[in-house]
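Chapter review: from sequence to fold.
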Amino acid sequence: MIRGRTPAITELNERSREIFRHIVDAYVHTGEPIGSRTLSRRLPAGLSPATIRNVMADLEDLGLLYAPHTSAGRLPTQAGMRLFVNGLLEVGGLADEERSRLDAQAQAMGRSVEQLLSEAIGTLSGLSRCAGMVVAPKMQRNLKHLEFVWLGRGRALVVLVTEDGLVENRLVDLPEGVEPQALVEATNFLNHRLAGHTLDEVREDVLAELEHQRHQLDALTRRVVEAGLATWSGDAQRSALIVRGQSHLLEDVTAVEDLERIRGLFDALETSERFLGILEMTTKAEGVQIFIGSENDLFGVSGCSMIVAPYRDAREQIVGAIGVIGPQRLNFARIIPLVDYTAKVVGRIIG
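The token string follows.
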């Protein structure tokens, strides 16, 4: 083997793989280094502490283990964790209770997409004890009904109901002088043109009709229609990041320097564009994606890992991504199926 190169798992003999597996398992469960004497009690009889120490030294030379301080046991390096995930990880299944809690999120009628996604990612965060995040899909659903709801001078609520029962709403600023009757006229005008279509399909036609005045709307009503379309058009073209359960990231903090790293991650979560970039990159891949530590510069400082899966609509098109962020020593075997199943549930929600 070449020093400085991360080996393939097939380059390790069975003894080395078994010792390495136990070291990683101990790290995932405790976060603490484990020594040869402790390992000798957990491994099959016949492996002495001296033999185990020799194997650990070889694994350290390969860049898979390191000693956090003199005379300590060993911990896996980032390269070691990647080797474990790629070659030794045995993914488990979901408990019935976990599956039931996630399935309960798929009751979509009468709630907005954001509410549904927020509840689903909140459940995933609670089950995984990690921060959860989801990229909400762009609005590309056939519409059943639109309504402007009067909220008083200068404000209205625009409510969209899709053909499959999802509800979305946004606040909109009204032009000065608009009365409630103008909202009724704007609602009737748009419903006649939007029903059974997506916003993208009819937006340009509606705007062209307004521009050429092939209708009987007065000037203020036209401006209400334009304001409503502008509000929804911006949202239809933009993905939104929803994050829940950031407090779980503090559960693994054991030192001041750990807290500073997590604060850096919190700051990154506030600038959601960077996470949107990672999550939207995931939508171009198949299946669950795993990022460990500095494999992505976003987590290099915080020492975190992320597990992400894309989700699909009824046409089997990838429309978003869902995932969790936690410590580098994530329990991958347990959390990967949680993320994967939640992505399927969210796909059923989106339809």
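Two observations follow directly from the output. The mean pLDDT is 79. Strands lie at 65-66, 75-76, 131-136, 143-150, 155-162, 167-173, 240-244, 289-292, 304-312, 318-327.
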